[in-house]
Design brief:
- The complex is a heterodimer of chains A (about 100) and B (about 230).
- Chain A has about 100 residues and is mainly α.
- Chain A has one domain.
- Chain A contains four helices and no strands.
- Chain A is elongated and about 45 Å long.
- By secondary structure, chain B is an alpha+beta fold.
- Chain B folds into two domains: about 170 residues, Alpha-D-Glucose-1,6-Bisphosphate, Chain A, domain 4, CATH 3.30.530.20; about 55 residues, no CATH class.
- Chain B has a seven-stranded antiparallel beta sheet.
- In chain B, α1 crosses α2.
- The radius of gyration of chain B is 20 Å and the shape is elongated.
- The N and C termini of chain B lie far apart (about 45 Å).
- Chains A and B meet through α1, α2, α3 and α4 of A and α1, β2, β3, β4 and β5 of B.
């Protein structure tokens, strides 16, 4: 697996990635016939399973990466990116114009 | 601004392509990826999985680039994705966080299940340079040209991972058999990831003992990689 941005976090990342990937494989294949109720049930089950299996290692890995992000002073860049959130914007949005005219 | 768009059809089902897509680093075609971290991940009330990853990529500047334009050719990339297992869609959007005045590249990839249970990937990218000095267009064109080459390589990378997943699902009981290990090119390539420049030798692979058969494809892939 790819390394973490901080070598200190790489072992935690490997452990977390393994846990997540095992979970993710099942998450991608819900039962074919799904009523809204079944969906909710599946989602809740998977959420509980994730929390139970990967919750602890995720917290450890996350706090390690958060510290590394601060140490490398990447948090300002990230905050800026967060505010823009491209997933929720239509393709021709104002942020592009801003970037090109700045 | 320049715009690039392309569609590609995978013969594999959506769940496998999506799995491979998330496993794509590292692969032999992505040696420029220095690090990749999940910085946030949550399940939405609708049951979709939302992930933000922070990726560090190495790059090379073109020869005509002004000296001192960048301290180094590294770039931080943010990747935001949403997986909808019910609607069978992955949406993934990436862009660079630094060097945005030289050029900002935004890429959006969607993976969708088709009616005949294949997977269509649609890629869109926008290139915006605010550099000026008469170089704006040249920088943007360079970006598009590099991107076109990159699209091909990134698909090759996903194919390598797809092969591994396919094998682990189709031949679960013969994982350690010489036939599987020696005839498959993709295995050799992936082995190379873990061994740097050292080429995987077929005999060496053949000599390896069969690995444990538990869990899904992911468990098998990791045990293959570790068995080196």
């Amino acid at each position: 697996m790819a390394h973490s941005l901080s070598e200190a976090c790489t072992p935690l990342k490997s452990e977390y990635d393994s846990c997540f990937n095992a979970w993710f494989e099942g998450y991608l294949e819900p039962a074919v016939s799904t009523t809204p109720e079944q969906r909710t049930k599946f989602s809740n089950q998977k959420a509980a399973e994730y929390e139970e299996k990967c919750g602890k290692i995720w917290e450890k890995y996350r706090s390690c990466v958060q510290k590394a992000v601060k140490d490398k002073q990447l948090d300002a860049l990230l905050d800026q990116a967060r505010q823009e959130n491209p997933l929720k914007e239509p393709p021709n949005d104002s942020s592009t114009n801003k970037a090109s005219s700045s | 601004m320049k715009f690039f768009s392309q569609s590609f059809l995978y013969d594999d089902p959506w769940s496998i392509v999506s799995f491979a897509f998330f496993l794509r680093y590292p692969n032999p075609y992505a040696s420029h990826v220095a690090s990749c971290d999940v910085i946030s991940r949550s399940l939405s009330p609708q049951g979709t999985l939302i992930t933000t990853r922070l990726i560090l990529k190495h790059g090379a500047l073109p020869r005509w680039a002004p000296k001192g334009i960048m301290k180094n050719a590294e770039s931080w990339i943010i990747e935001e994705s949403e997986v909808d297992p019910f609607g069978r869609v992955v949406r993934c959007s990436t862009r660079n966080l630094d060097h945005v005045k030289i050029m900002r590249v935004e890429e959006t990839i969607t993976l969708r299940q088709t009616e005949d249970h294949k997977t269509i990937q649609h890629t869109e990218a926008r290139f915006v340079s605010g550099f000026g000095w008469g170089l704006t267009k040249r920088i943007e064109s360079h970006g598009v040209a590099k991107f076109k080459a990159h699209v091909h390589r990134s698909r090759e990378g996903i194919s390598v991972i797809l092969n591994l997943i396919r094998q682990s699902r189709m031949q679960p009981m013969t994982l350690g058999s010489p036939g599987l290990m020696t005839t498959d090119k993709s295995f050799t390539e992936v082995t190379r990831v873990e061994h740097g420049e050292k080429k995987a030798d077929n005999d060496e692979i053949q000599a390896r003992s069969p690995v444990q058969q538990t869990g899904g494809a992911w468990t098998k892939i990791t045990s293959w990689l570790r068995s080196g």
